[in-house]
Design goal:
The protein is an alpha/beta fold. The protein has 2 domains: 157 residues, Thiolase/Chalcone synthase (Peroxisomal Thiolase, Chain A, domain 1); 144 residues, Thiolase/Chalcone synthase (Peroxisomal Thiolase, Chain A, domain 1, 3-Layer(aba) Sandwich). It is 35% helix and 23% strand. The chain has 10 helices and 14 strands. The strands form 5 sheets. A 4-stranded mixed β-sheet has the order 4-3-5-6, sandwiched between helices. Helix 3 packs across helix 4 and helix 7 packs parallel to helix 8. Bound molecules: oxa(dethia)-CoA. The site of oxa(dethia)-CoA has 21 residues, from helix 2, helix 6, helix 7 and strand 13.
Length: 312
């Protein structure tokens, strides 16, 4: 995460100066968020991704030149094009390997993992960097208290490597484009101008209701594909948007909250970066261990959702 950290109180004070009223109490009670990190001017998704990738490569004992595939999940690319993955590849010095972005908003990381897994299984790649990187602070309307308190910036990355023993056991991805309007940034670039509103819009209650239903369905479908049951899940690592959504999903899957990795309190909703940030935090804290089964789940704009079951 970028160094600049704003607690709820910091953000509330900043918003109050603009006549927007919110409080630490409201944000904690409704979302579980206590703080978020925002980038400074001039820092982009590829910069956050670079730091995450360096840590992931170091943890894997690999060099950037060993990588033959880079997939970046982001909805906040550095540029319209080329892809953030290409910009990242150059910063890493991994020039020459395949590199592209996946755009599935908050489900981006599970989409990207699934694509990388498929490419590795079919021999199209052997060592992949899969990254979630976002600077959502640039999309926020700081006059809209219903959205601007929810999101933060960050990046997380993993290395996937071809192996005889999986690894990724099963995944399940979905989208339903009829819900485009409930979570979107409707603006676009046209003829040298930004047309439409380039700030994030969300119908929070509609997203909430859809999220709790589809997250249960995706987890169950993924377990069924892998021939596993809820009892086989050692850790649920869901998209970190709202603690109440995580609690509801855990309850539906009959998992106690001590099997759920929760980091939303420390970084808010970082969209495609939230699952790898949570995974990283749990691995580095020694909570999530090799050999354990992890259920990763994402949900977000599109509407998109999906799950990946893996053995670490
Ligand atoms: O990453 C993609 C996934 N995104 C999500 O998962 C987000 C899903 N949605 C949510 O997490 C929740 O719907 C929110 C956190 C966005 C909102 O929580 P809620 O419990 O659904 O609140 P609400 O929208 O029903 O608003 C309740 C009240 C309203 O006031 P009135 O009309 O009852 O007087 C809002 O105006 O809370 C008010 N409110 C706030 N008050 C203080 C809304 N935002 C704020 C705020 N501070 N920041």
């Amino acid at each position: 995460m970028p160094p600049r950290r704003l607690t709820n109180a910091d953000l509330a004070a900043q918003l109050a100066a603009q006549g927007v009223e919110t409080s630490d109490e409201w944000i904690v009670e409704r979302t579980g968020i206590r703080a978020r990190h925002f980038v400074e001017a001039g820092v982009y998704s590829s910069d956050l991704a670079l730091e995450a990738c360096k840590s992931a490569l170091s943890a894997a004992g690999l060099q950037a030149q060993d990588i033959d595939l880079i997939i970046v999940a982001t909805s906040t690319p550095d540029m319209v094009f080329p892809s953030t993955a290409c910009i990242l590849q150059n910063k890493l010095g991994a020039n020459g390997c395949a590199a592209f972005d996946v755009q599935a908003v908050c489900s981006g990381f599970v989409y990207a993992l699934t694509v990388a897994d498929a490419m590795i299984r079919t021999g199209g790649a052997s060592k992949a960097l899969v990254v979630g990187a976002e600077v959502f602070s640039r999309l926020l309307d700081f006059t809209d208290r219903t959205t601007c308190v929810l999101f933060g910036d960050g990046a997380g990355a993993v290395v996937l490597e071809a192996s005889e023993t999986p690894g990724i056991l099963a995944s399940d991805l979905h989208a339903d484009g009829k819900h485009v309007g409930i979570l979107c940034v409707p603006g676009h670039v046209s003829n040298g101008h930004i047309l439409g509103d380039p700030l994030l819009k969300m119908d929070g209650q509609a997203v909430f209701k859809l999220a709790v239903g589809v997250l249960e369905d995706a987890a169950r479908a993924t377990l069924a594909k892998a021939g596993k049951t809820e009892a086989d899940i050692d850790w649920l690592i869901p998209h970190q948007a709202n603690i109440r959504i995580m609690q509801s999903t855990a309850k539906k899957l009959k998992l106690p909250m001590d099997k759920v990795v929760v980091t939303v309190d420390q970084h808010g909703n970082t969209s495609a970066a939230s699952i790898p940030l949570a995974l990283d935090s749990a691995v580095r804290a020694g909570r999530v261990k090799p050999g354990q089964n992890l259920m990763l789940e994402g949900v977000g704009g599109g509407f998109t959702w999906g799950a990946v079951l893996l053995t670490l």
